[in-house]
Automatic annotation (TrEMBL):
Catalytic activity: ATP + protein L-histidine = ADP + protein N-phospho-L-histidine
Record's keyword terms, sorted: Kinase, Membrane, Phosphoprotein, Transferase, Transmembrane, Transmembrane helix, Two-component regulatory system
Top-rank EC class of the record's enzyme: transferase
Organism of this sequence: Archangium lansingense
Molecular function (Gene Ontology), one example: kinase activity
Protein name as it appears in the record: histidine kinase
UniProt keyword annotation of Nucleus present: no
UniProt-listed Enzyme Commission number(s): 2.7.13.3
Amino acid sequence: MFRRLLPTLSALVLGLAGLGWGLWQLQRIFATEREDARASLHSRREALEQYALVSLRQTLREKLEEARPALELAAADPLAPAQGLYLRERGEQLLPRLALHDPAEDSPARDRYTRLRAGKEVPEEEDEPWTERLALMGTLERALERRDVRSTTDALVAYLQHRVRYVLASTRDVPSFLVVLEALAERATPEHLLMQSLLHHGMEDGQGHRMEGLQRLLLLKRSRFTRADFYFLHERVVELSRRTGTPVIEFEARTAELAATPLPLPGSLPGPVLVRSGWYLEPKDKDHVRGVAVAPAALLDILTQEMRERGLLGPEGHVSLLGTEEVLPLANLPLGVETPLWEEEEKALEQRYRLKTGMVVLCAALALTIAGLSFVAQHRKYRFVELKSDFVATVSHELRTPLASIRLLAETLEWRLAQGAETKDYPARIIHEADGLGFLVENLLSFNRIDKGRWVPHLSVVRLDELVATLRRDLEAWARVPVELTADVGERELLADPQLMRLLLANLARNACAYNTRNPVCLRVESLADGRVRFSDNGVGIPEAEWERIFGEFYRLRGQGREVPGSGLGLALCRRILRLHGGDLRVAASSPEGTTFELTFAERR
C-alpha cells in the first residue's frame, strides 16, 4: 500500500513545503513590522527606565549597607537575631541559621545526661581527658554534698579550667556542663551574675580564652546532636535558665528560627542580584555571599511614587519588573515603565499582529487539514480495495473448497453406482460439505444484514438448555471429531432471537473445533449467578494481545493462516449478535489449555 500512496504523499509534502515557506516569509514580514513599531514606542520610555534602574540599584545597596552591622553581629553571636539577613561562606549557608542536626536516630547525649545524673557514667581507660573531667565532676559533687563553699568554688574553677584546656566531643561536653550547672542550681546558691555568664553571656579566663555560655554553646554545636538530643538539651537549658533568672527569650527565639533546609537561592552569582522571592544578594568574593531581605513590590511602589512626585510619570503610570526569571542580575534589571497610553498603543499593536498571525496560522491549519483529509481518503480508498480483494479471495477459497468436495464426491458416487460398489457414506459426506457451505453463506448474509441494520431481532423467551440441546444435535451432524458438550445452565431463560442465538453458539462451537488439537473436543456452557453465560473449550488458546483483535472483521489469528477454514467473520458476527441484544461478548480467560468466552445479556424487564 505504501508504494501506491507514495506519489500522493510526495505531492502533498511538496505542496505543504511550498505553502509553508510562503507563510513563513509572510510571518517574517509581519514580525518585522511589529518590531519596528515596538522600537519606536520603546524609545520614549528608555530614559525613564534607565532612571528607575539607577534608583533601584542605589536603594538596594543602601539597604544592604544598613544591615551590615546586624549581619556581622548575627554571624558572630548565635543569640543575635538574623531575620532578613543572609550569609553564605564556602558554599554553606550561615544565615538564616540551619538546624543541621545529626541525621542518626539514636540519642547519645540524652543517654549520657541520664547516666551522669544517676552517677552511672563509666570512664574509658584510654580516654584520659574524659576520665579527668568525670573526676572533677565527682569532686564538685562531693563538695556540694558537704555544702563547703570554698571547696565548691575550687572544684568549679578546676572544672571550668579543664573545659578551656581540653575540647571534648559535644555529646560529652554539653551534657556534662548542663549536669554541673543543674547541680549548682539545686544544691548551692551561686551568684546571679555567674549563672548568667555560664548560661548566657559566656566568660573569659583572663588569658584570652573565652568560654561560651551554655545557650550559645548548644546553638553553636547544634550540628553535633541528633534532633532528639538537641531539643532534649534545649528543654533542660530553658528550664534551668528560668529557674536561675537567666534571660531565655533570645535563646528560644533563635531555636524557633532554625530552618530545616537552606533557602532556595542560587549557588553561583555573576554579581549583585535581586531574587524575586524577596532577597538582594551581593557576592563579596567567590566563597562569600551576603544579602538582605527586601520586598521588590514595595520598593517599586516607593520608586513609582517618587517619579510621580518629580513629574516623570502620570497619575496612573507605574514601574514594574518584567519577565519571569527568578534571579535578576542587578546590572541589567528588566524594569518596565508603563502608562495607560503606552499600554493602549502596545495593545493595539499586539492585536494587529495577532490578527495577522492568526490568519497565517489559519491558512496553515486549513492546508494541513486538507492535506490530511486527502491522504486519509486516499488511504481509505486503497484500504477498501485491499479489504475487498482479501474478502473476495477468502470467500472464493472457502466456497471453492466445499464445492470441489461436493463435485468430487458426486462424481465418485456416480462412478461407484455404475460399478455397483458400496456408496452408503457418500450422501452423508455430500450433505456435510453442503452444510458447511450453507453455514458460511448464512454467516455472510447474517453479518451483512446486521452490519447494515436490516435485521430486527424477533425476541422471545427461550430456554438456554434448549439452545444447548440444539447445539448438541448440530455437533452430531457436522462435527468430524468426537465432541463432548457439557452444560450447567439450570432453567436459565433468555429474552432473545432463537435463530441468532443458535447461530452464535454454532460459531463458537465451530471455532472451538477448528482451533483444537485434542481428541475429544470438550465444550462447556455454564450459566453464572449474575446472569452471565460462559462458553469454554479445550482448544489451543488465544494470546492475550489478540483478545480484542479477534472480534474484528476478517481477522485471523497469526500462525493459523489458511490451514483453518473460515472467513474471519465468526467472532465478529457473535459480538454483533450480542450487541444487537444489548449485551456483549469478550474473552474471559485463555491459555494453551483452552479459552473461555463470556456472554453478557441485557437485563430483562
